Amino acid sequence: MFDVEMRGDVAVVKMNHGKANALDIEFCEGIVKQLDALRTGAKAVVWTATGGIFCAGVDLKRVLAEGTGYLHTFLPALSRAFKTLYAFPNPMVSAINGHALAGGCIVAIAGDYRIMAEGGATIGVPELRVGVPFPSMALEMVRQCAGRNTERVLYFGERHTPQAGLSLGLVDELTRAERLLDRAVAVAEDWSSLPADAFAVTKWQVREQVFLRLEALEDEEREVERIWMEAAALDRIRAYVDAKL
Question: Which string of DSSP letters, residue by residue, matches 11-29?
Fold first, then answer.
């Protein structure tokens, strides 16, 4: 699921889970395990992907194939993966090498610094276009990085160009595709030279409001899961998938 290369103290982690790095139960669990290993195995991390797609989000075809029983296990696994990415204490740079959509956008914005390759790739969260609500963790992550642009990002559900992603706060920097990885490693190397404990505390101070809010959102999260598992939601997902074929 992951190709890991050490560049000094920086671990370059490339997602390698099928053509689109689609999020399923196994991949979400793999993200958690990989990050647990990296806590002590690397001073900093560059998170990227193989191929031309960073991450296309939830594997909707599998959701349709396996139904509500699968969703009952998958949705908590998805939230755990997002939380583990966002709470990772070491510096993490996202090197967005291709499309980062829906859950894939959430994986991308989990980085402390997000660099996207210029070109034809897109970034965004089209969940409402699919017909399902956002997991609470994902929504809070979007709110944290998009700020006043949050409503636009969520309600329109657009696939943004790299330049638009930069203006909306989803991306911090753009670079040429051939320079993407080297630039991301350079930022990670710089931050890896900082005192690890001071960085971890500062990162927690920056992000703690997201986790404090989540403690008060248990009822909201149950409502999100309820809607995802409704027959009507599955029909909307099916219509969305069929339209993309």
Answer: EEEEE-STTTT-B-HHHHH
